[in-house]
Amino acid sequence: MHDIRAIRENPAAFDAALARRGDAPMSSDLLRLDESRRAKILAAETAQADQNKASKEVGAAKGRGDEAEFERLRTLVAEKKAEVARMQTEAKDLDALLVDQLARIANLPADDVPEGADEDDNVEVNRWGTPRTFDFTPKEHYEIPSVAAAMDFETAAKTSGSRFVNLSKGVARVHRALAQFMLDTHIDKNGLTEMQTPVLVRDEAMYGTDKLPKFGEDSYQTINGWWLIPTSEVTLTYSVSGDILEERDLPIRMTAHTVCFRSEAGSAGKDTAGMLRQHQFEKVEMVSITHPEKSDDEQKRMLRCAEGILEQLGIPYRTVVLCTGDMGFGARRTFDIEAWLPGQGTYREISSVSTTGDFQARRMNARFRPEGGGKPEYVHTLNGSGLAVGRCLIAVLENGQNSDGTVTLPDVLAPYLGGKLTLLNNGSLS
Fold it and tell me: How confident is the prediction for the chain on average, in pLDDT?
């Protein structure tokens, strides 16, 4: 959500920031609507003052027996009362329209975000690990014999349709182990607080975390109005909605492992093979609620938390900063971490770490009270995948595949797999 006062103060800067995203200028229309809204509010206040004045004079006219003046004033009071109600209604309608328009405008990019049109203009900022050299042609995850024995798309399609998968045997256990490993790392080493949150949320939570009103088609809604979360960013971030936090309690750092749901609207034909793009998937999410002056440093810290997971798993990756044309709606700045997938011979996104500034905080009225006193200020909110469990599973399987169809798993998972680090061709662990 944007601050209309900031747009009033510098409309040219607002339009220039939108232009960096490739959006048309909007300040003139917004300020015209804002001016009409403020005029209606002023008119209502003026009519209210006239009503109050006439109300006081009614009694005086009655007291001195001036029946004609009494009737005139009584009629005037009724007219002003109706005028006040009409003006207040019109102002309320204009205010709702302004809020709705502001809510549909993407966040403004940070000054250091590179300009560009799409993913081809993203800028690499870090690279770790050397992709393994295979003495055979590496397969995609679903083609590896030991994986294919425990990754069933056909049965999932019978129950749910396309873009779903049933995991069994060793693959299911590795998937579970990865989520547990991520959680334990974030809790024990990275200082995050584990949360267990609902996967069904109300409109307000989706709106407050910028998923509504513009992107409702990207998520699933139940017949009684709840939304299935696209990520636990929604529940973790919205947990501070309406709160005035104490500055000494910041930052608040949370993590959660949840099932997530996305309709994948507009992705027809993309990544239809395998489990790279699913309607239902699992993520270990990270969310931070911070002081505005510390949010940039917090984003860097969160990025290292996510990168560290891949490094412990031995998965080569690269980190890119998204250009203005590729950033998500609510982000001021986003770093994507892309894991190396030898089956595709390319890097694919496995985590996004974004700062939204006060964009979400304004929508859900989340503030903090400065320690030195003064007016409460909006917090900054950040979110990041730490990591997408299914995509991490893909990276582990593809990077660990052997010529005989088995998969060698990372040593760091041994405590979660009973020491069994080989996925056999029948899908079991050994």
Answer: 94
136 class by beta-carbon count within 10 Å (0-12 exposed, 13-18 middle, 19+ buried): exposed
Q: Which residues pair with 200 in a beta bridge?
A: 228
- Return the SS3 of 234: helix
Confirm if 289 and 245 have CB atoms less than 8 A apart. yes
Tell me: the pLDDT tens digits for 147-172?
999 999 999 999 999 999 999 999 99
Q: What is the DSSP string of 365-393?
A: T-EEE-TT-SS-EE-EEEEEEEEEHHHHH
Please identify every residue annotated as catalytic.
Answer: 262, 277, 349, 352, 391
Q: 145: cis peptide before it, omega within 30°?
A: no
Element (H, E) at 177: helix 169-188
Calpha distance 167→423 (Å, rounded): 13
What value does the mean pLDDT take over residues 216-223?
94
Measured distance CA(330)–CA(209) in Å, rounded? 8
Write down the pTM of the prediction: 0.92
Q: What was the pLDDT predicted at 146? A: 98
DSSP code per residue over 12-33: HHHHHHHHHTTPPP-HHHHHHH
- Give mean pLDDT, residues 244-258: 98
Tokens of 231: 């990520």
The Cα–Cα gap between 328 and 362 comes to 18
Contacts of 256 (CB under 8 A, 6+ apart): 194, 195, 196, 197, 232, 235, 236, 284, 285
- Which of 204, 228, 209, 201 minimizes the C-alpha distance to 330? 209
Sign of CA dihedral 360, 363, 368, 370: positive
R_g (Cα) of the chain, nearest Å? 28
In this prediction, residue 176 carries a pLDDT of 98
Q: How confident is the model at residue 273 (pLDDT cuts 50, 70, 90)?
A: confident
Residue 61: Cβ within 10 Å count: 18
Share of the chain above pLDDT 70, in %: 96
**What CA–CA distances, in Å, run from 24 to 8, 74, 105, 323?**
17, 51, 11, 17
